[in-house]
Amino acid sequence: MPFTDEEVDALNVQENAYPLEFFKDFAQEITVYEDDDIWVVDKPAGLLSVDGKTLKVSLLARLERANPAVKLIHRLDMDTSGLIIFAKNAAAQTNISKQFIERLPQKKYQARVFGQWEQVGAAGEISVPVRYEPTTKPRHIVDHDWSKHALTLYEVIAHEMCDGQPVTRVMLKPVTGRSHQLRVHMVHAGHVMIGDPIYAEGAALKIAPRLNLHAQQLRLKHPVLGAWMDWESPCPF
């Protein structure tokens, strides 16, 4: 849920009061892989990828305190946890950013959605455009007339119960990278992600303490070695 102005001020003050050791320990705890060129970390849910307009508490800002050379490549939503890669020099940043533009990196997310959706093992795709809707900020919506398409591949992993409610565990592979794409595509499919503070309501919101969306797998080419590299983060829900 959105923070009040007072809560934002308090969080900013608290962040500025932390000693350098706090940021170094934080960076070490979430590091999945690091070398001279790249830094792969496991972002906690509830933390911005980059500073907001008022809230100056983010993953990038914390990593910059630990290593000022770190450079942004892509982002995850504040409510989403999981793998995110940063560069440690300009050349690596340019190389991997180009890979993202060319859609070479392979990303897989695990999610739990409300209700029982299809049969276990079922797979398919959702291909409908997603755009920002300023009248319902920060929501995005499906707009069939929008020019930029959005494509998500999915596979049903399991049917489960959560707090007495049926939910479905799915693996999602975004082919395109529109903002809120996975969340809106699940809404479009009729199965909102549980714990989603933006799109879920009622039982779908209350049965999980956080958005059940996790960036579980990431695969791309090392910017210097040229070899494909794979990372995986255990799903926390």
From TrEMBL:
<protein>
    <recommendedName>
        <fullName>Dual-specificity RNA pseudouridine synthase RluA</fullName>
        <ecNumber>5.4.99.28</ecNumber>
        <ecNumber>5.4.99.29</ecNumber>
    </recommendedName>
</protein>
<keyword id="KW-0698">rRNA processing</keyword>
<dbReference type="GO" id="GO:0008033">
    <property type="term" value="P:tRNA processing"/>
</dbReference>
<dbReference type="InterPro" id="IPR006145">
    <property type="entry name" value="PsdUridine_synth_RsuA/RluA"/>
</dbReference>
<dbReference type="GO" id="GO:0160151">
    <property type="term" value="F:tRNA pseudouridine(32) synthase activity"/>
</dbReference>
<comment type="similarity">
    <text>Belongs to the pseudouridine synthase RluA family.</text>
</comment>
<dbReference type="GO" id="GO:0160142">
    <property type="term" value="F:23S rRNA pseudouridine(746) synthase activity"/>
</dbReference>
<dbReference type="GO" id="GO:0003723">
    <property type="term" value="F:RNA binding"/>
</dbReference>
<dbReference type="Pfam" id="PF00849">
    <property type="entry name" value="PseudoU_synth_2"/>
</dbReference>
<keyword id="KW-0819">tRNA processing</keyword>
<dbReference type="InterPro" id="IPR050188">
    <property type="entry name" value="RluA_PseudoU_synthase"/>
</dbReference>
<keyword id="KW-0413">Isomerase</keyword>
<comment type="function">
    <text>Dual specificity enzyme that catalyzes the synthesis of pseudouridine from uracil-746 in 23S ribosomal RNA and from uracil-32 in the anticodon stem and loop of transfer RNAs.</text>
</comment>
<feature type="domain" description="Pseudouridine synthase RsuA/RluA-like">
    <location>
        <begin position="38"/>
        <end position="186"/>
    </location>
</feature>
<dbReference type="InterPro" id="IPR006224">
    <property type="entry name" value="PsdUridine_synth_RluA-like_CS"/>
</dbReference>
<dbReference type="InterPro" id="IPR020103">
    <property type="entry name" value="PsdUridine_synth_cat_dom_sf"/>
</dbReference>
<dbReference type="GO" id="GO:0000455">
    <property type="term" value="P:enzyme-directed rRNA pseudouridine synthesis"/>
</dbReference>
